[in-house]
Amino acid sequence: MSGNIQDDLQLLDAPVAQTAQNTGIGADIDLTSATTEAEWLARLDEIGDELDPVAGGFTPLGADHAALYADAGDTLLVTFESIATIRARQPDHRPMGFTHAQARGWSSLSILARQPRWFRDPEIYDYFDAQIDSGFFENFRRVLFYGEGMCGYAACAYSLAAAGATVLAIAPQATLDPTLAGWDRRFMGARRLDFRSRFGFAPAMLDGGRNAFIVHDPAQPLDLMHATLFRRPFVTLLRSPDLGKNTAAALARLGALDPMIDATAQGKMTPAVFHTLMRARRTDAAYLTRLTKRCAKQGSHPARTVTAARHALAQSDSRKLRKYLARAEKQLSRA
Known about the structure:
By secondary structure, the protein is an alpha/beta fold. 45% of the residues lie in helices and 15% in strands. It has an 8-stranded mixed beta sheet, with helices on both faces. Helix 9 links the parallel strand 7 and strand 8. The protein is globular.
């Protein structure tokens, strides 16, 4: 790893240490004890009430979506998030983008979904049209759109509203229009949604941006096929092999997701920085187990299987891993 990359990664940690102690918006409002989604939204509305009513707040967007905007610094983090994922993954049950931006002194705009509708509702179109008309995004020096999966699709699609924005999307769908992506049968109900009108085909919506980074696991065939649809001169495809079906959750577990967001927002994301962050996989039991299984199934490289299995067993004991190791060692002894 070059000295410059190491310096960049060290600098990314500084804003968190400097500003985390100053976060206090809605600190007295407990979202974790909300028993229903409606109650959770009501409490998020209370947090919105603590924000400057002119510069921020909570906005319902039809029956299935809402927006939470907090004004702070001249960097804006726009995230698209599923409420179910927030409540399942975030310890404080707050939108990830809101929490991440607060800790860094950034502004945040969290677009929240109650249902898996891929943000394809007229209220979402109207909301972003209003931001375009008001020149909202022009108030910021840097704008980063972020999302994963369905939310990654939306981050790419709606980035068109902010000329010169940067996008970081984890395993996004390019479209679910059956005439273009009929091979993806994971979300059959969503095929009825309109992916042909405004903000529809996500790769084309990136044309007005500065650059975009599409992270995907090539071991997931459908995610790989979507990623190939994003190929553009200003789009960087970042491969994250063997992280599993939920790539974003795996990146968070590795401690790589926050630095990735920071590096991208600060204009420092490169393939070299990404691969440096991916080194955390070397001590991740889940990744090493998948790597061992893949090497063992290939069968033609027992030495790789032995190496992977030994590293995996150093992290977590497993009968199956020991079986893979013994079989590979036996192959090597016959060679």
